[in-house]
Amino acid sequence: MQEQEPIRSKQPGALRGLSGKVLLLTIIFVMLGEVLIFLPSIANFRIQWLKGRIAQAEIAALAAEAAPDQILSSDLRSEILMGAGVLVVSLEKGESRKLALRSDGDFMIDASFDLRSTMWYEAIMDAFGAMLAGENRVIGVMDKPPNMSGDLIEIALYEEPLQAAMFRYGFNILLLSIFLSLLVAGMIFAALNWVLVQPMQRLTRNMVEFGQNPEDFSRIIKPGLRHDEIGIAERELHDMQTELATMLQQKNHLAALGLAVSKVSHDLRNMLTSAQLISDRLSNVEDPTVKRFAPKLISSLDRAIEFLSQTLKFGRAQELPPNRERLELRELADEVIEAVVIKPSSRIRIFNEVKAGVVVDADREHLIRVLTNLKRNSIQALEFLQAERSDAPEGVISLDARREGSVTVIEIRDNGPGIPEQVRERLFQAFQSAARQGGTGLGLAIAAELVRAHGGDIILQSSSEAGTCFVITIPDQVTQLRPGRTGERKLSLKA
Dihedral sign, CA of 116, 117, 123, 129? Predict the structure, then answer.
């Protein structure tokens, strides 16, 4: 199967990028603010315009009252009403109501408005109603006389001049709003672009460039002197990129080292094997000095070969997934016991206490490696104890197992010296778990890795001067769900 090339991120276009989105949102919100300002402005303009007409009408009414005998000719009355821009002027003072001026024509009032008790939302609705009114309505307006000539003044007038004035005012406000919106949006955009957008674009470009070659230290971002969130992000990104580049460089070095080790491992193993054969022959020499140092030489070569084998096994890029099958555990334990090498001088016995019929669902080779590593650790601990103490008891290693539902539980016990307290916390870490000099620190790490690949676990159940007990749990492999004959879903275990 042909591998797909990784998808590389690229810089977005001007309109789809962060800068374009910030500009668009700024214009939208500024225009929205202008609209919110326009609504009360046009309402206030209408009210002030009507109040101006009321003031003119009051003056006209006072002028009519000042005429001799309060009698005006038809032409003069029409001229006064036209100058005030109204059709009717009525004054109310106390309980008396007086029609001060009235036009000669016939008309009907289409809508009335009381400016004394108008709420702000009503004023906005009335303003838009006036602008949207299609016909030349006659409206009545009531208010308190501005010159205190009475308690109430009421006028009637055509709404068309008000509409024209409101449209002129609205058009001027629209032009001013557009100009201010663009000006304010440009200023806000410039500020946001300098404070936020450009630093974010710099971060984005750096991450894209660094992702193309993360091992290049020259592509690591250089943080600025900012102390805000952007500055923190730059410094954290710098530290993360530096750590990642260092890790990748170390990984390449380790890969190259592993390749070199794998190439020389065969020759090195042959050299160590030849040296081991020579040392075995030296053990037959009668020279006392040779007899004294030959066992130490053989032991050192054994440890060297074992360390090389364990290191090469652990150095694999990845263990193969377990090829699981149902295994008779007692037979497999016998095979492991027979393969374990014990020095003739060692007083160690291994017992297989697994009952017949106990099965485990596991990879055969993986489980053999796990049990071999654990038994080898027990043998090394017992040999160390017998070398240190002449009165040490006979070493005993036992292997037992049982089934608990769909889980196989394996126990490996010994009567060794136990594991030191300071080692238990890192017991299953590679190169960290060697409890005594000469250990590789890989046996338990490899065992834990293989057991976890089966979905199981390995724990140190107990460890003291009376001995050590490791417990391995391996669950049966669960197959995928399949429909039964009746359409039910059944869970089955691999047989």
Answer: negative
